[in-house]
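Appendix B, example 12.
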Amino acid sequence: MSNYTRRLLKFKVVVAGAKDAGKTSLIRRYATGKFHADLLSTIGVDFETKKVSTEETDILLNIWDFAGEKKFRILLPSYVSGASGALMLYDCTNKDSLEDLEEWVKIISSVPNSPKTKLIIETKYDLDDLREVSKEEGEEFFKKANFQGELIRTSAKTGENVEYAFEMLSKEILKNSLNNCPNCGNLYPVEQKFCQYCGRKTQ
């Protein structure tokens, strides 16, 4: 194995969805392994990092968490630019959150150089008895959105499928977003205009 394949790759990912869909809880559970029931709503944008190791490389995910309130959506396009992946969340106990997701998908898809990898995540799976969005409705939305991977049902409270969701995102990004730098030969995310190793322009 050549040396550069084990070098750290850095990917920017965004997490979007309706207010109270569980975005921050999912990210914190993934980053810290803990569930916090008393998290305040995100104001604007929040940020976490987490290192992921695959068989071939190490990945540093820079995770951007966007507030779900409509007044903050104007911020989204500027932060989405250059992102390699996006997790789009809806809350299975809130039907409005699935309808709201359609607007988030449109916003992210309209951004020039938008993420090539997008996954749909269902949150609060531990509250299945309070479900407002049927599993069939979730699957139908997933197929209509034509995203990668599969519809992943998660619970930040129990930890179910949280690691799996980000692992799936990382694997799909590796499939969709890597190119060899024409200057130094190292792998870099195609969404970025400059190589993260040599710093030279790639496009």
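Strands lie at 8-17, 45-53, 58-66, 85-91, 117-123, 152-153, 178-180, 187-189. The domain at 3-189 is CATH 3.40.50.300 (Rossmann fold).
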